[in-house]
Amino acid sequence: MTNLRVLFAPLAVLLASCSATDVPTDTADLGRSVSIDAVFEDIATTGPIEFEKVTAATWSVPLSGLLNLEHPNAQAAGIEDRDEAISVYTYVLKHPEHGVYLVDGGVSESFRGADNSDVSWLVAKVMNMAALTVQRSNREILAGLDGEAISGVLLTHIHLDHIMGFDDLPLGTDVYLGPGEAEASSANHLATRGTTNRLLSQVSQLREWAFDGSKALDVFGDGSLFAIHAPGHTAGLTVYLARTTAGAQLMIGDLTHTRWGWENGVEPGTYSADLPQSAKSLTWIKSLVDKYDAAGNIITVHPGHQSL
């Protein structure tokens, strides 16, 4: 056995050190560090951003990936694994001065009605890509902007279902994501990195948020949009709080995937890289919502794949 460990040790190191993507990263040119109190200071006041939530696709995946079924709340509810209907969302933010940004990458027209060659056969099988049905592609979103360009994409994280729309966006569109997201090492990336690289082939560089010791950034410097680092599901998971003409919108990505997960404080399951940290981040973000919106009528929360 000792000899076998020595023999396979280099392979184990290789598997564990596989990053999410080969796309180069650099420090973001947007955002300044602020306190959490500053994020929520004017939360009850409407802001300048026009907000639209788009259902880009519908899908069905195992609930055990979306929800930690070992959590006491899930155990008490008697929840068992099953195929769960979900949606893939992208959010269109129109700022009067800074232009149009997407939160998460949407879905491209190439995923409609045919196998997508960007996704490997293994990833397609494991992720049940046959069940994905495009509802509104990025091409259709762009058509509804009357010629207005997309200024950038703000990713909650880099998982497959959050980066499927770049084929429909202009080459070199600015893309922002959390620190360490692209470089995070995992054995799973050996199977997924090729697909991730192909889905990001239109992206020349990933711009990482520089939190500089803070947990939050004022993205535009005007108090209208904030990025908050909430790692666990992935190393760089970032949630976004927008002050919009329709009130405060909190886009939490896969901090928790489901409506039930948010309402009952249950973090994602097997899809998370660090389950204990994922649970801590969810508890923290929920505590902020409870603190700054005690009555529950100010902040609209958007879980990753189901609406409240």
UniProtKB/TrEMBL annotation:
Keyword line: Hydrolase, Metal-binding, Signal, Zinc
Domain Metallo-beta-lactamase: 87-305
Pfam family for this entry, one: Lactamase_B
UniProt keyword Cytoplasm present: no
The organism's place on the tree of life at top rank: Bacteria
InterPro entries: MBL_superfamily_lactonases (IPR051013), Metallo-B-lactamas (IPR001279), RibonucZ/Hydroxyglut_hydro (IPR036866)
Cofactor requirement: Zn(2+)
SUPFAM superfamilies: Metallo-hydrolase/oxidoreductase
Any coiled-coil regions, as ranges: none
Residues annotated as signal peptide: 1-22
Family, as annotated: Belongs to the metallo-beta-lactamase superfamily.
Name of protein: MBL fold metallo-hydrolase
Origin species: Congregibacter brevis
